[in-house]
Predict the structure of Aromatic hydrocarbon degradation protein.
Amino acid sequence: MKFSTIKSAAIAAALILPSASVIAEGYQVNSLSTRQLGMGHAGIGMKLGAESQFFNPAAMAFMNDKVDLSASFNAIFPTCTATVGGKEYTTDNKASTPFSIFGAFSIFDNLKAGISVYTPYGSSIDWTDNWPGATLNQSVSLAAYTVQPTISWKILPNLSIGAGLTMTWGSVNLNKGLIDGKTLDAMLAAIGSQYRFGDVTPASVNLNGKADMAFGVNLGVMYDFSEHVSAGVNFRSKSMMKVKAGETTVSYATSDPTILALLTSKLDGISKTDFKAEMPCPATLGFGASWHNDRVVADFDAQLTFWNAYKSLDISFDGASQFDQHLEKNYHNSWLMRAGVEWKTTPRLDLRAGLMVDFSPCDKEYYNPETPGMTKIEPTLGLTFRPIPCLGVNLAAMYVAGCGIDNASYTSTNVLTQQPETFTADYRVHSWTASVGLSLSF
């Protein structure tokens, strides 16, 4: 079977969206710059050289150096818990490792160009194979990569514009239970079999696919109101993303020939057909303002993500319509607030602190463990040490504290009985992020 479904930003949200403790609500990774992570990942209203390609392409036009380079690497350690029927289940997650590389150079004093590579989406979550929500999600690993060439032009001494072309592709590996043990046990009892699965998931499916490249734009405007105050606007467009030519593997938790015959008679259709799906990667609109002098920089950003474009995910299977799925999402637009401050303590050392507040777009009656998203509070700290004037060593750390949600539910259709089933749990998430980076300018 070939697995064709939207990905990068989209597939993540649709079938699997990884742990919200690792990423911002939805698909966005908030650790694409070690320097700015220390300031709460704020930067729309700041002049960041090459890194402005992501935060606000217009700000790159104010770059004073001929060449500016930076790279960041992150290790994210998430933990999610779900309490079901009074028992707590905890994920067994591996570390996620998003990264970014930015390069920019001066063409003229008022015209700059650059190129960047970063991971806007990427995480993993592992609920294990036999937890109570296995038919919604067992585990998922998501990675998406963006290449963005950018141009930035200072139209006036205090006004600039910038534009980047985003080209994104990626991969997804999803494991999901097809049927729960209690449902199959009832069927086995009806035919007189003594075999029982209990809490073991009898059959699971693995979906492994690569995303086609999707295109979008990253646009910005920057304006200096005075010597000390700057403001910017950043817009990232919506794009539609698809995965094609993926592979599907169905596995069974028994070798008993009678039970295997029963399962394969019901489930083999899902491994012998293609399925298709499509959904949007929503647009974002951000506003930022900064105040700065020779020693201190403070920035505040507000970003609106247009999640209302994500109403549902419809998956259709060629020649096996009994497996078609209509997954209600009904997301609503949500805000992400970022604020940070930087203090240049000495010519060699900068200290930073910041805070993000990430509001959930999910309603509690559409809460799926593939995406245990919730409002989160995210304090950050960071520093830069310069052993020589042109080289900076950047360090940052972030803690993500999910506000939690109780009695969150999701209704899906049982593959065998075709009857609706509602899964309810109390969710908690938190994570730690460690980030290291280098910056070089000359």
Observations:
- The longest strand covers residues 420-441.
- Confidence is low (pLDDT under 50) at residues 1-27.
- The chain has five helices and 25 strands.
- The CA atoms of residues 169 and 213 lie 5 Å apart.
